[in-house]
Amino acid sequence: MAKKIEAKADNEAVKVTTKKDVILKETNTTTKKGVAEKRTEEKETAKKTAFKKIAANKKETNDVVSTEEVTIVTPSVKNRNVKDYSVEEKLHMLYKLQTIVSEIDKIKTLRGELPLEVQDLEDEIAGLKTRLEKYQSEIHELDNNVTAQKNKISGAKILIEKFKGQLDLVRNNREFDNLSKEIEFQELEVEFSEKKIKEFNVAIKQKKESISGSKEIIEGRKIDLEQKKKELQEIIAETRQEEEKLREKAKSIEDKIELRLLNAFKRIRKGARNGLAVVNIERDACGGCFNKIPPQKQLDIKLHKKIIVCEYCGRIMIDPELANTIEK
Questions:
Q1: Beta partners for residue 64, in sequence order
Q2: How far is residue 53 CA from its own chain's centroid?
Q3: Across the beta sheet with 316-318, what order do the strands follow?
Q4: 2-27 and 32-60 helices cross at what angle (nearest 10)?
Q5: Which helix (DSSP H) or strand (DSSP E) does residue 162 occupy?
């Protein structure tokens, strides 16, 4: 490695001195002896510069470089103080973690559809309450409309009385006709407002009936929700201790697995329907997607030399013998 770096430095030095020679030949300002000395000096300078450049590059990759001897130092991977386990040990821990999280999944399935039912009931009650608020705001708006129509009726009746009083003071038929038309128009306004008030009252009555019906439904749903929650709490209480123990075991194993591998395990498990990220070979096929595995890949899996994933589903595959040993 040191010889390669020195040769690289010499090449760069030759390039630099060649350019300098051309300049010196063109200017003819120095003697041949001065050119030779200059070339030697510039070669040494270029060599030092090249070594400095290489050292700087190596420093960025945590390598140590010297002009006499080149030594590459690869830093150890620091990942939550995780030991450097063998591939077989890593597969052992991954499969053990898979069995534990699968047990947790089984405990969750014991709860059945109760969590979803509880969530649906809570959503339904929230929707009914929102509907009640909407009905109440509509009733308030209808009440305001009724009040406005009543005010119109009062104003129209006042005008009718006023126009009737003016009928006795008319001086010709034209004024009489105009006042009669005004009185007739105000009477029509009163009838129209009364009709609107009736419609608003009918709407208010319907809204109130809907509110009472919604309240009854809410009360019934609340009773159902309390029962479902009680059942769910009982099931959770029965399995809580076991689940907590399993979670502690899973956490202790996760602390031993390197972060990159653990993240891959969680990502695969999240994408799998059955929650299996690590599967063994069953009848020459993947235990997750059941696609056939070539014999050469099966041999590689049995050797435990590297972590191999299924090319179809992406799950980590493990030798059945190793899986049986872990289970026992």
A1: 71
A2: 44
A3: 285-286, 278-282, 316-318, 308-309
A4: 140
A5: helix 114-167
Residue whose entry in the numeric block shows the structure tokens 């128009």 = 185
Per residue in 282-316, pLDDT (tens digit) is 888 888 888 888 888 888 888 888 888 888 888 88
Asked which of 17-26, 210-219, 221-230 is least confident by mean pLDDT, the reply is 17-26
Cα dihedral angle (284, 286, 291, 294), rounded to 10 degrees?
-50
Q: Looking at residue 11, what is its pLDDT?
A: 60
Q: What angle do CA 314, 316, 319 make, to 5 degrees?
A: 135
3-state helix, strand, coil in the chain (%, to 5): 75, 5, 20
Using the 8-state DSSP alphabet, how is residue 292 labeled?
Answer: B
- Tally of CB atoms within 10 A around 91: 24
Query: In whole angstroms, how far apart are CA 59 and each of 5, 48, 75, 80?
Result: 15, 16, 12, 25
Among the listed residues 269, 273, 291, 271, the one whose alpha carbon sits nearest the alpha carbon of residue 281: 291
